[in-house]
Sequence to fold (457 residues):
Amino acid sequence: MSVLQEMSPNVKQMRQLEYAVLARQAIRIREELKQGVRKPYKEVIDVCWGDPHRAGIKPLSFVRQVLAACLYPQLVNSDKLPVDVRQRAQRLLQECCGGSVGAYTNTRGIPEIVHRVSEFITRRDGGAPSPPENIYISPGSQWALTNMLKILVNSKASTRTGVLTPVPCHSTTTLSLEGLGAVIVPYYLSERQGWELQVEELQQALDSAKGVCNPMALYVINPGNPSGHVQSRKSMQEVIRFVSEKRLFLLADEVYQECVYGENSEFVSYKRVLAEMGPPLSDTVELASFHSASKGYMGECGLRGGYVELVNLDPAVMKYIYTIFSMDTCAPVLGQMALDLMMNPPQPGDPSYPLYDVEKQPIRTALVHNVKTARAVLNSLPGFCCQPVEEVGMKPDTFYCSRLLEEAGVLVSPGCEYGQKEGTFHIRFCIMTPQDIMEELLKRLTSFHTQFMEDFS
Ligand SMILES: Cc1ncc(COP(=O)(O)O)c(C=O)c1O
Fold:
């Protein structure tokens, strides 16, 4: 018997991701395509993760040029790269220990980059101060969130720690919560109201936790994933009053802040709204706000760069936070640099600006176009409704995704991965793709869905 049989019961209880089945299926299909097996499509469109590059978006040259020069410093003197790229790379290298991206950095990140993150936050939030000592750069934002949960979740307490969590919710967060032994206290976003967060739902969730667990935190994703909903200032103020009244720690996952496309929606950070509300709330509500280089126009998920900003935490707790972040020594240096470049892109007048702008604009245009066309096409399809498919041992939406992958070569993820109201089924896909890929995807989805409805409805 393996010693690992004795593994943590929390880990044993972690839900197996439905994605694993679809991923294996996609590997087989790709292999068959390589071997020349005839299918109605030539390649798989993979939009099942919130991963822009995987979905076909090209990296921004400016980012890759600076990183290339940091990795291979001879390029700093090469006239093949624009002068501002070389200057950026040179400055970044000077900020690295030993002048190399191969060296460890401080636990919170390269001090100058942390400083620039703090300046970015202050600019974004209309001047609300952001002391650099409250910022931790991490290997992706999810890692920082898991660290915060490690601090919040008391695995030794007789009553387990509860965390109010949205449904639907980005799936790796629920995995982190399960792995740490927290109780997930679900609050349902209102699908009818465009996946709005309603404070009455938070109250209901809290009521449902009575006698079950000790709710310690509220996790919000704004802009939402997978919902895409952008919270209004008013809604955020309500949430802030709620957490203050109920003495909950606020975990604000704001990694999609650049991806706001609705005409009347605007991203405002929780930090900003809290600061605007003034004392006593602005001095007392404990908040951790997360951001990442993985999303937005840059979409550099694989470089693993994110940060958390902590607001109103007790200095005694900050000491433990430092310790817990020290466990991994530091975030990957290229990820830290990517974060820096995301927050300080080229400006008009810089030699790199024209190309940066030429590359960025189509991503924005594609995002707006994709949202519009995807919504129009999906709304024109007869209701996504599946019969339970117990005989193949799959949940109905996983079954739908599996057939879509097999027959149309489109890899999306099933709603059950994110949580959904009983009796409802969803699919979720990344809309940050080039326009032609989205159009091809929607064409394949439409013809697949028509056939699927004939076969199963
Ligand atoms: C809401 C949300 N938060 C966090 C993450 C993870 O981001 P990172 O790559 O910074 O860990 C994702 C990834 O899709 C996400 O959707």
Notes: DSSP finds 16 helices and eleven strands in the chain. The chain has two domains: 3-56+355-456, 104-343. The CA atoms of residues 6 and 12 lie 10 Å apart.
